[in-house]
Specification:
With about 200 residues, this protein is an all-alpha fold. It has ten helices and no strands.
């Protein structure tokens, strides 16, 4: 039920906290040029993906659509990644555990969580297929989705070094492609500095 005197609505149920901030960015952007704003804590890739659909339907429905498509793709590619390491049964178990976890609930809400999960999984999928540039590009998009996305760089760099048995000459090339990941964060910080006068507002 809604609050006393206010009818129940799906929008009122879904648009809370971070979801409300993302939808404000979809509708109004990051605010006036030259002014630092709290909205810069919310990274741009998710609202950029929602915005085209928001021209065709209610922005809340557009956000839910993008979120749930991202979640389905994340589950599919998670299955593929785990299947390659642990077989079909392992892939099935991974999907079942994800679907039964609280993560699946939060990833179904109109926030960037599902998109971040999808991009992290796709980055690992690219790495498993020995496509470091593809892995780096998806990692860069993860870093443009959430601050935590940039942490992928450290995990992937460690994986590259371990695979090469810590011989720098063997993992320098793949590791260089992974520099695309922090480049995503750097690009958003440059936007924040140029457009709003505070690069550190994104952190």
């Amino acid at each position: 039920r809604g609050a006393p005197g206010r009818p129940f609505s799906l929008e009122g149920l879904l648009v809370r906290g971070d979801a409300a901030q993302y939808l404000r960015i979809v509708e109004d952007g990051y605010g006036p040029t030259g002014q630092a704003t709290r909205r810069l804590l919310f990274f741009p890739l998710y609202p950029l993906l929602v915005k085209p659909f928001a021209f065709l339907m209610d922005p809340v429905l557009a956000a839910v659509l993008v979120t749930n498509v991202a979640l389905l793709l994340a589950m599919y590619f998670l299955f593929r990644v785990v299947e390659s390491a642990a077989g079909k049964e392992g892939g099935d178990d991974a999907i079942a555990y994800l679907a039964a976890s609280p993560i699946a609930f939060f990833c179904a809400l109109p926030t960037a969580d599902a998109l971040l999960l999808m991009l992290l999984v796709l980055s690992f999928y690219g790495w498993e297929k020995d496509r470091p540039v593809i892995a780096g590009l998806f990692g860069m998009m993860a870093a443009l989705t959430h601050l935590y996305g940039v942490l992928l760089f450290f995990g992937m760099a460690f994986a590259a070094a371990s695979k090469a048995k810590w011989r720098f000459s063997s993992f320098a090339g793949p590791a260089a492609a992974l520099l695309l990941i922090p480049a995503g964060l750097a690009a958003f910080m440059i936007y924040a500095q140029v457009g709003h006068g505070d690069a550190m507002a994104v952190i």
